[in-house]
C-alpha cells in the first residue's frame, strides 16, 4: 500500500498535486485516502498533504517512518517532513530553497546541506530543478506536475490514468501546461531510475 | 452508482443536497468552511454566510420550523457563539429536520483552542452522530435529518479536521429527495416563556431515553469481532487509527455516539478483561463507559491534547496491551530502523506570514511607531503578533478585541502601577469580524465613555478562511449583488464621534491618523481600507533597491515583508513577490528603494 507525503510551502500547488495523485489511484480502482492541512498554512506557511491507496486504507494520516515516497516541493520542507519517510523510501526533491521569514530576518539559518541530509536518509533521492522545468513547460506554478511526473516512473499507473486525473483536477486553462510539465518530470524521473 | 473522492465537507454538502436540504447557513471557519461553499453550487438550496454562528443557527431554526430541511455549519468555537439558541432549540423542536454540523480541530491547525464539542450535545440533550470518513459523512446527513424529524429534535453531526479535510471514496447516486412540510402554529411548544419551558424540559428528557433505544439499533454502531483478547471502543477518525494500529483487535465502532448504546457496550465488554477507548481530546466516551461501571482505559495512556495518529495510538497502548493480553505490542510493530534525522527543533520555523503588499502591514507599522497596547481578534492581521511587527498584546476570539480594549483602558485609567507608562490602548479587528462580534462592543465603548481607538482592518473580504463574502462586500454566498454595509456610517450611527478612513499603503497618512486619534480623548474608529492583495490583481510595478544608496540600516526589514531580503551589505527586493505597495520606499530614509522603471 503506497504512502506518499507531499511537503511544501503554501502557494506551491501541493494540495492540488495531492488531488491529482489521489484521482489517479482512484481511477485504478483502489481505495484512496488523502489528508491536507489547510487554514493558516495558506499564508506562506509550511503545508503537508498525504495520499494513501490500496485494497483497503484505514487512517488518512501516514504514521512517521512509513511513507514510501516524499515529494519535497522545497528543500527545508522536505527536511522537515523527512521523518515520515521510511528508510527504504524514495525522496523526490525539487532543488529549490525558499527562505522562511525567520531566516530573512536573520533569526534562524537555513539548514546547511539540507539536500545532503535528505540524500543520506532516503534509500533513493531523485533531484530535479522542477521550477525551471515548470517554467519551460509554460508556467512556474506547474512544479507539482513535474514532481508527479518523476513519481510516476516508480508507480505502475498507466499514462492515461494520470492524464485523466490532471484533466479532472486542474483548471481547464492550465491543463496543457501541466501535462507538459508532467511529461518533463517523467522524462527526468526515467533518467534517474 | 458513481464513485468519487470527496473531502468530508464536500460529502456533507452532497448528502445534504440529496436529502433535500433547502436552507443552509454558516459563518466561515476552518475546518468547516467548504460545507456551504460546496452546497451553494447546487440548485434548489438557499445558502447564506450569516454575520455569526448565533445568527446562522437562528436562521436555521426559522427555516426548519417553516418546513424546510436545514443544515447549519460552524467550527467548534463558533458553537460557543451559537450556544444560546442551541440550548433552547431542543425544547421547541424542529418540524422539518435540522442538522448542526460542527467541526472540531484537534491539534489546533488553525484555531485558538482545542475544545471538544461533544459536550455540547450532552449539555443540550441532543443526539449526535460522528462520521469516520467521507462515505459516512454522506450517509449520516440524510440519516440525521430523518432522525431529527422522527424525534422532533435538532441533531448534531460532529466532524474533526481529519474527517473534514481528508478525501476518501464515496459511492453515491446523485438524486435529490424533495421535502416540504406544512407550517403549523404551536405557541405552547415554540414560545419558551417559563411556563411553557417547564412543560418542555420533561419532553426533552423523555425523548433522550427513546433516543438511547435508537442508538442501540443504529446501523452506525457496529461490533467488529476479531481477537477476543483485545476490545477497543472508538469513534470518528480515531476508529481508523485504532484499526491501523491494532489490526487484530475487536472494535466497537460508534457512529451514533450520543446517547451511547449502553446494552451494546455492556455486551461487547463482557468478552474482554477490560476495554480500551481510543478518542481524541477529552475522555468523553470514557466517562460514559465509566459511568456504566465498566473497566476501561483511555486517557490514562492516550494523550488528552493534540491530534492522534496510528502511531500515537499504538505507542500509547501497546505496552499495556501486552501486559493485559500477552499479545506482543498488541500486534503493532514499530517502524523499521532509520537513518539520522535532523532535530525538528533545529529547523527554522516557517510560520504563516502576511503576504507581500498585505494592507495590514502598513497599519501595524504605524501602530508600532505610535507605541500602542493592542488588543486584537482573529484573522490574517493576528499574524502581526510575530516579529518584526510584534504588533499585538492580546487576542481571545472574534469581536473580543473591542471589549478587551475597553477593559484595558479602564484598568490603566485607575492604575498607579501603570501610571506614567505609555499604555495607550487600541483595539483591532477585521471587517468580517467587526460585523461578527465587534458591533456590540463598540456600542459599549461609546456608552461607557471610553477614550480608545478601534481600528477596523477592512480588506473587503473574509481573507483567512479563503475570501468569503460578508454583509460589507455587496455580494452574497449565492453570488447575488446586494446592499453593502457602510462600516463608517454604521460606526457613526452607534455614536462614535470620530470616524475616518485611511489607506494603509499611505504610511504618512496612516501614521498621522493613528497618532491623532490615540491622542484625542474620545472613542474613535479608524477604518484602514484596502482590498486583500491575494484577492485583487497586482496594482503597481515592483520596487528595487539602489545598492549604491543603501547603507544596510535594515529599517525596511522592520516591515516584515517576505519580498524584502538582506543580500550581503544591502537590502534587496524579490521582484517576483513584490506587488508594488511601496511601503519599503516610504520607510527608507535614504531614498534607496525605487519603482522599477519601464515596467509594463
- The sequence of SSEs of chain A as H and E is EHEEEHEHHEHHHH
Q: Averaged pLDDT of chain B, please? A: 94
Count the strands of chain A? 6
Low-confidence stretches of chain B: none
The greatest inter-chain interface is formed by: A-B, 56 and 57 residues
Q: What are the low-pLDDT stretches of chain A, counting only 5+ consecutive residues below 50?
A: none
Distance between the termini of chain B: 52 Å
Choose one word for the global shape of chain A.
Answer: globular
Strand-helix topology:
The complex is a heterodimer of chains A (193) and B (600).
Chain A lengths: L2 E7 L4 H14 L3 E6 L9 E9 L12 E6 L2 H6 L4 E10 L6 H4 L9 H8 L2 E5 L1 H8 L5 H10 L6 H11 L5 H18 L1
Parallel strand pairs in A: 1-4, 4-5, 5-6
Antiparallel strand pairs in A: 1-3, 2-3
Chain B lengths: L1 E6 H11 L4 E4 L7 H6 L6 E4 L3 H13 L4 E6 H6 L1 H10 L5 E7 L13 H7 L3 E2 L4 H18 L3 E6 H4 L1 E7 L14 H4 L3 H24 L4 E3 L2 E9 H10 L3 E6 L1 E3 L3 H8 L5 E4 L5 H8 L4 E2 L12 H16 L33 H11 L2 E5 L17 E2 L4 H14 L10 E7 H17 L5 E6 L28 H7 L4 E5 L4 H13 L4 E6 L13 E3 L18 E4 L2 E4 L9 H5 L5 E3 L5
Parallel strand pairs in B: 2-3, 2-4, 4-5, 5-7, 6-7, 10-11, 10-13, 13-14, 15-16, 15-17, 17-18, 18-20, 19-20
Antiparallel strand pairs in B: 1-8, 6-12, 9-11, 21-24, 22-23
In short:
The complex is a heterodimer of chains A (about 190) and B (about 600). Chain A has helices spanning about 15-25, 75-80, 100-105, 115-120, 130-135, 145-150, 160-170, 175-190, and strands spanning about 5-10, 30-35, 45-55, 65-70, 85-95, 125-130. By secondary structure, chain A is an alpha/beta fold.
Amino acid at each position: 500500500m503506497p504512502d506518499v507525503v507531499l511537503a511544501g510551502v503554501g502557494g506551491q500547488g501541493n494540495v492540488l498535486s495531492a488531488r491529482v495523485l489521489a484521482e489517479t489511484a482512484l481511477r485504478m480502482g483502489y481505495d484512496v485516502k488523502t489528508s491536507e492541512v489547510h487554514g493558516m498554512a495558506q499564508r506562506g506557511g509550511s503545508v503537508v498533504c498525504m495520499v494513501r491507496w490500496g485494497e483497503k486504507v484505514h487512517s488518512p494520516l501516514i504514521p512517521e517512518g512509513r511513507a514510501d515516497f516524499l515529494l519535497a516541493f522545497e528543500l527545508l520542507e522536505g527536511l522537515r517532513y523527512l521523518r515520515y519517510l521510511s528508510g527504504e523510501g524514495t525522496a523526490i526533491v525539487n532543488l529549490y530553497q525558499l527562505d522562511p521569514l525567520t531566516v530573512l530576518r536573520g533569526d534562524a539559518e537555513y539548514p546547511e546541506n539540507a539536500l545532503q541530509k535528505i540524500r543520506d536518509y532516503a534509500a533513493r533521492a531523485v533531484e530535479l530543478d522542477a521550477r525551471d522545468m515548470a517554467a519551460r513547460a509554460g508556467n512556474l506554478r506547474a512544479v507539482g506536475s513535474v514532481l508527479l511526473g518523476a513519481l510516476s516512473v516508480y508507480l505502475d499507473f498507466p499514462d492515461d490514468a494520470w492524464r485523466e486525473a490532471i484533466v479532472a483536477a486542474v483548471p481547464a486553462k492550465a491543463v496543457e501546461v501541466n501535462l507538459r510539465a508532467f511529461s518533463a518530470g517523467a522524462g527526468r524521473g526515467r533518467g534517474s531510475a | 452508482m458513481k464513485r468519487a473522492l470527496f473531502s468530508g465537507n464536500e460529502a456533507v454538502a452532497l448528502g445534504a443536497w440529496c436529502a433535500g436540504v433547502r436552507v443552509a447557513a454558516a459563518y466561515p471557519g476552518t475546518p468547516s468552511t467548504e460545507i456551504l461553499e460546496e452546497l451553494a453550487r447546487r440548485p434548489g438550496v438557499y445558502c447564506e454566510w450569516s454575520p455569526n454562528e448565533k445568527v446562522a443557527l437562528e436562521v436555521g431554526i426559522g427555516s426548519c420550523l417553516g418546513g424546510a430541511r436545514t443544515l447549519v455549519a460552524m467550527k467548534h468555537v463558533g458553537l460557543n457563539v451559537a450556544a444560546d439558541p442551541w440550548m433552547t432549540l431542543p425544547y421547541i423542536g424542529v418540524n422539518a429536520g435540522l442538522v448542526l454540523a460542527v467541526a472540531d480541530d484537534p491539534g489546533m491547525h488553525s484555531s485558538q483552542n482545542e475544545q471538544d464539542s461533544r459536550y455540547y450535545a450532552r449539555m443540550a440533550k441532543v443526539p449526535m452522530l460522528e462520521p469516520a470518513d467521507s462515505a459516512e459523512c454522506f450517509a449520516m446527513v440524510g440519516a440525521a435529518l430523518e432522525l431529527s424529524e422522527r424525534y422532533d429534535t435538532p441533531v448534531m453531526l460532529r466532524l474533526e479536521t481529519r474527517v473534514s479535510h481528508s478525501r476518501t471514496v464515496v459511492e453515491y447516486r446523485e438524486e435529490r429527495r424533495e421535502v416540504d412540510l406544512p407550517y403549523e402554529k404551536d405557541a405552547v411548544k415554540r414560545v419558551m416563556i417559563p411556563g411553557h419551558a417547564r412543560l418542555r424540559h420533561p419532553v426533552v428528557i423523555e425523548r433522550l431515553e427513546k433516543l438511547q433505544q435508537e442508538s442501540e439499533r443504529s446501523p452506525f454502531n457496529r461490533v467488529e469481532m476479531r481477537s477476543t483478547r483485545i476490545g477497543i471502543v472508538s469513534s470518528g477518525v480515531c476508529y481508523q487509527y485504532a484499526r491501523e494500529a491494532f489490526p487484530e483487535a475487536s472494535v466497537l465502532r460508534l457512529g451514533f455516539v450520543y446517547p451511547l448504546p449502553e446494552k451494546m457496550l455492556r455486551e461487547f465488554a463482557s468478552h474482554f478483561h477490560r476495554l480500551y477507548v481510543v478518542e481524541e481530546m477529552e475522555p468523553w466516551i470514557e466517562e460514559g463507559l465509566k459511568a456504566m461501571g465498566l473497566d476501561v482505559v483511555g486517557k490514562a495512556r492516550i494523550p488528552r491534547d493534540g491530534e492522534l495518529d496510528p502511531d500515537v495510538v499504538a505507542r500509547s497502548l501497546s505496552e499495556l496491551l501486552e501486559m493485559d493480553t500477552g499479545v506482543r505490542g498488541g500486534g503493532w510493530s514499530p517502524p523499521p530502523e532509520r537513518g539520522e534525522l535532523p532535530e525538528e527543533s533545529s529547523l527554522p520555523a516557517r510560520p504563516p506570514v502576511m503576504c507581500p503588499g498585505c494592507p495590514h502591514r502598513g497599519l501595524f507599522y504605524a501602530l508600532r511607531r505610535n507605541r500602542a497596547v493592542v488588543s486584537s481578534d482573529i484573522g490574517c492581521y493576528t499574524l502581526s503578533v510575530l516579529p518584526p511587527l510584534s504588533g499585538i498584546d492580546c487576542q481571545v476570539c472574534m469581536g473580543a478585541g473591542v471589549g478587551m480594549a475597553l477593559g484595558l483602558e479602564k484598568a490603566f485609567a485607575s492604575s498607579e502601577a501603570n501610571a506614567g507608562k505609555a499604555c495607550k490602548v487600541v483595539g483591532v479587528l477585521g471587517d468580517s469580524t467587526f460585523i461578527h462580534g465587534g458591533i456590540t462592543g463598540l456600542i459599549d465603548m461609546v456608552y461607557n465613555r471610553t477614550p480608545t481607538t478601534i481600528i477596523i482592518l477592512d480588506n473587503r473580504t473574509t481573507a483567512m478562511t479563503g475570501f468569503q463574502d460578508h454583509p460589507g462586500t455587496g455580494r452574497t454566498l449565492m453570488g447575488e449583488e446586494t446592499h453593502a454595509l457602510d462600516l463608517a456610517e454604521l460606526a457613526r450611527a452607534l455614536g462614535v464621534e470620530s470616524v475616518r478612513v485611511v489607506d494603509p499603503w499611505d504610511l504618512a497618512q496612516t501614521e498621522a491618523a493613528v497618532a491623532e486619534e490615540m491622542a484625542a480623548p474620545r472613542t474613535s474608529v479608524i477604518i484602514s481600507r484596502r482590498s486583500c492583495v491575494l484577492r485583487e490583481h497586482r496594482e503597481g510595478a515592483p520596487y528595487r533597491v539602489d545598492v549604491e544608496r543603501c547603507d544596510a540600516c535594515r529599517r525596511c526589514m522592520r516591515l516584515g515583508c517576505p519580498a524584502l531580503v538582506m543580500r550581503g551589505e544591502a537590502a534587496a527586493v524579490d521582484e517576483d513577490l513584490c506587488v508594488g505597495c511601496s511601503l519599503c520606499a516610504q520607510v527608507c530614509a535614504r531614498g534607496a528603494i525605487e519603482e522599477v522603471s519601464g515596467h509594463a
